[in-house]
Amino acid sequence: MKKRIAVARLFQETSSFSPRKTTLDDFRQFGLYYGEKVLSLGRELRDEIGGFCNFAEQSGEYELVPVLWAVGWTGGALTSETFDFLKHGLVNGISSTDRLDGVLLALHGSMVAEGIPDTEGDILDSIRRIIGTSVPLVTTFDHHANMTQRIVDSVDGLVAYNQCPHGDVYETGLAGARMMARILRGEILPTIAFQKIPMITPADKFETEKFPLKRWFDMARTMEERSEVVAVAQFPVQPWLDVPEYGWSAVVVTDNEKPLADKLAADIAQAAWDQRREFVVNNPAPDEAVRMAIEEEGPIVIADGADATNGGAPGDSTILLKEMLKQRVDKTTFLTMVDPAAVQAALAVGVGNALTVDLGGKLDPANSSPVRLTGRVTACSDGKFKIVGGSHHAISVDMGRTVVLQAGKIHIVVSEKLNPGHDPLVYRHIGLEPKDAHIIVVKCVVGHMNAYSAIMKKTIWTDCPGATPSNLARLKHRYVQRPLYPLDPEMVWTPKIERATAGTH
Ligand SMILES: [Zn+2]
Fold first, then answer.
1. CA of 69: how far to CAs of 9, 93, 107, 183, in Å?
2. CATH 3.40.50.2300 spans which residues of the chain?
3. How far does the centroid of ligand 1 lie from the alpha carbon of residue 101, in Å?
4. Helix 119-131 crosses helix 80-95 at what angle (to 10 degrees)?
């Protein structure tokens, strides 16, 4: 008889500094699925579930029992009702499954809900209480996860993406399924060592194919060549959370070799700590960034990473727009703005006509304010299109009703809802070709690097205020434990041997 493994994917990356809460509608935008659709969607998207499916089909040993597929766009903390709904869907789905031999989950790892800073720890702990200690629980994570002791204590084993941009989502699913299979066959007795590293780093240097991150990831892959090592999972956490027990982490899973797991985890944590200063960036102020962009040969991308729509920011910062108006930019410039009231006003006057509006700066008043602008409405769209390729393979975008407002040579794509700020289709879908512009503003840190590689001459990163800045000292943390680098730049730290889980709970 085939072994039965419950599978689910629950994914949202929270920015604690986002002014907007995440609701069930944010999940419904991508779809909330139960039953067979979980598996067919996973296969189609080639996400972690796709990897689980492939492994189960190849080995022929397992029957997958689909429970839930729920993915939400990056944003603020989940409302309590949203979290309760998703948690119960997942936990009840598992508890009502007959004859369960294992639980295999794909989680993001940095999802926060109102009053619950560690949602994944909360969910995994609840599942563990239901399934007991004899049924293995294995989880895959995004490597921007904020790993916690509670997560580590709840699982038998875990794996994480090794690549950013995340090109190995499917392969990570395969690795998780393989770990589960080895446990079920009795081939391994997983032993976990966990190191929390008190550092956070800006997203500017998150690409794993570049230094300094490449060196750290290569080190772990070398460790995995040892036969006793089952997996090394590294977590350079995303930098926009405000939760206790926060920072980078390293998890080493060995086959019943506790001292080795402890030693390798300490080594890899020390290596991360030793290179902490290499991640600090010192980007030019907005006035300087605009001046540089005007003078350079175009197209130049200015990355407004502090208003990253894929990082949880609202996408309506006016800091760069104000600076461009002040410097009277007279080269073709594209930028985006989320402002439903301005869209409404523009549609009321109609394409071809002029209007004066107070644009943007409304959703995050602590960081920017509206700018009064007179322009002409030159285009409108329903804001719907599909992005194919990239980390998420396929995204159906709905920016809401969208218009182009033109003031001099500045063309502003104004939408009712959030846009995928890293993708040129935000402009192209409404008739603006980024190749024709001198300056293009993107609302992300590095997410545009692939999508814009054939278009841009270079990217200029700038130090604006916002919900997702690279200058982490700009953020007003309230809950993080201190000291934490770089908020406490002179702090000292060395890895210590942590309490670990050894296949029992
Ligand atoms: Zn990530």
1. 5, 12, 10, 24
2. 3-279
3. 30
4. 20
Distance 324 CA to ligand 1 centre (A): 32
| CA 253 to centroid of ligand 1, rounded, Å | 21
User: Position of tokens 């090394």?
Assistant: 232
Ligand 1: distance of its center to the CA of 484 in Å? Answer: 21
Q: Residue 298 corresponds to which tokens in the numbers above?
A: 């175009």
Q: Distance between CA 245 and CA 211 in Å, rounded? A: 27
- Class of domain 3-279 as given by CATH: alpha beta
pTM, full prediction = 0.89
Nearest CA among 77, 367, 363 for reference residue 240: 77
C-alpha 228/C-alpha 161 separation (Å) is 21
3-state secondary structure (DSSP) of residue 404: strand
Kindly report the three-state secondary structure assignment for every residue of 451-462: CCCCCCCEEEEC
Confidence of residue 36 (pLDDT cuts 50, 70, 90): very high
Q: Ligand 1: distance of its center to the CA of 72 in Å?
A: 13
Determine if residue 289 is left, alpha or beta; phi over 0 gives left, psi from -120 to 50 gives alpha, anything else beta. alpha
Q: Where are the beta strands (DSSP E) in 43-124?
A: 62-71, 102-107
Across 87-91, 418-422, 486-490, least confident range: 418-422
- Tell how far the Cα of 142 is from the centroid of ligand 1, in angstroms: 5
Best CA proximity match to 428, nearest among 407, 408, 399: 399
Tokens of 408: 């001099």
Dist. CA 45 → ligand 1 center (Å): 17
Distance between CA 257 and CA 281 in Å, rounded? 39
pLDDT digits (tens, 9 = 90+) for 257-269: 999 999 999 999 9
